[in-house]
Amino acid sequence: MAFLSSNASSLLLALVFAVFAGSLMAASAGNLYSDFDITWGDGRGKIQNNGELLTLSLDKASGSGFQSKNEYLFGKIDMQLKLVPGNSAGTVTAYYLSSKGSTWDEIDFEFLGNKSGQPYTLHTNVFAQGKGNREQQFHLWFDPTEDFHTYSILWNGQRIIFSVDGTPIRAFKNAESIGVPFPKNQPMRIYSSLWNADDWATQGGRVKTDWSKAPFTASYRNFQANACVRSSGTSSCDSRSSWLMEDLDETNQNKLKWVQENYMIYNYCTDSKRFPQGLPPECQLS
Fold it and tell me: pTM for this structure?
């Protein structure tokens, strides 16, 4: 067999990469009908505008929810959300990745409703092998009910980065070297739900849901998944894929610091009263 010339070899590699990249994009932006199923709510969840818009609604009888058709194992997931406006106290809009089983993994965005004029609380958490308790909470620097904003999860074998409109707000590093489980082996679906949690969601449950304001509605659009699709026990890529090694450059590290210094309202890694025997070991990482 004749050896390929350097130009031919380069062309072949480019073609291989293009095919490989295409497999990664198999779950990327498209019609929401093809990406998601409404899973509960008896008609309160709807895909509209020829698949360009998804809405979830909550009333006193029920909330609603959806899940992705695909499972993912690593990737970058983007979704634009517009949250319940006005007096949304007691409501929670949850948007997250999760696996199944008693030792599940999970990566959470939860938006805790507010009384009119008060800011939403953005609650984040990471579960690994069924263990969570890694909450960080934020107030946003804009009104998330006036327009759509992009909420992103970058998940690879080294870290999880939560971002809002391209600005990182939280980075959770793999700390398996010091005995901390990290979600890296279980494929996860995307889930979202709008539900009533007025026993705890707003000011610790002191402010209840005002059902005269129902139905409450959250909206979703512009889903993007540059991600590894898990199908029949195999993934379309693995943790060695170079694009999955993405980390925060200096600019984004500065943005992360800005958010955490100005908009973080709770960090489990500083809550010594909650952990009197010592903070969780991953909190010692820089």
Answer: 0.87
